[in-house]
Amino acid sequence: MPSLMETIMSQLGGDTLKKLGGQLGTDEKTTGAATGAVVTTLLGALSRNASRQSGAESLSNALSKDHDGGVLNDLSGFLNNPQIGGGDGILKHVLGNRRGVVEKGIGAASGLDAGKAGQLLSTLAPIVMGVLGKQQRQQGLNASSLAGLLGQERESIERQQPAAKGILGSLLDTDGDGDVDMGDLAKHGKGLLGKFFGK
After folding, report:
1. This prediction's pTM
2. CA dihedral 151, 119, 71, 37 (to 10 degrees)
């Protein structure tokens, strides 16, 4: 069975990646690097939040209520109007006051400016939540098993990309200050995109 990261990245190749790049005004290589860093970071942040029981229950409720995976049925339509996904609200819950640090890190790793990195974060957050919500529904996951799934995913990312452990730790456990080198996360994401789309 594919990992969460693989499932998400499989939704984001080809025309979807081109459309994202068109919205950002960037080439496919830059968009792919930024996308990989965004997805890895969001999964790490969700895992961190779900490691607390209250966080896991809050996430489970949000998925049940607002993120059933329907966004995946018409990604092209969603990308024409990504504001409908409520990405900024998701990021407020998932990243809190660390959003600015994340945007700077993704920008530095991929060559995007922080504003475009923020735009990409806001666009991709509902897609990540949609994949997670679909898995919750299909597998009958409760808050505890959801937390376990996300914990396994973070461990898998850190195994495949050992540098990710330090990066995610410094990124997600800070109070929002300082710079984080996310180059390795961008490389990891590009590698996964290449795996799916032969780049």
Report:
1. 0.86
2. -30
Nearest of 161, 176, 136 to residue 37 by alpha carbon:
161
Q: Distance between CA 116 and CA 26 in Å, rounded?
A: 10
Amino acid type, 82: P
Q: Map tokens 């790793």 to a residue.
A: 109
- Contact assessment for residue 33 and residue 107, using Cβ atoms and an 8 Å cutoff: no
Q: Nearest 5 degrees, angle CA 3-CA 72-CA 6?
A: 15
> Is residue 95 a contact partner of residue 131, using CB atoms and an 8 Å limit?
no
Distances (CA, A) of 104 to 97, 111, 118, 171, 190: 13, 10, 9, 11, 18
Alpha helices in the chain (DSSP H): 4-11, 14-24, 28-50, 53-66, 75-80, 87-94, 99-110, 114-139, 143-160, 163-172, 183-197
The CA dihedral of 93, 95, 96, 97, to the nearest 10 degrees, is: -170
177 backbone φψ class: left, alpha, beta (φ>0; ψ -120 to 50): beta
53-84: pLDDT as tens digits: 999 999 999 999 999 899 999 998 999 999 88
pLDDT tens per residue, range 2-43: 788 888 988 887 789 899 999 999 988 888 888 888 888 899
- Calpha distance 123→117 (Å, rounded): 10
What are the boundaries of each domain within the chain? Answer: 4-197
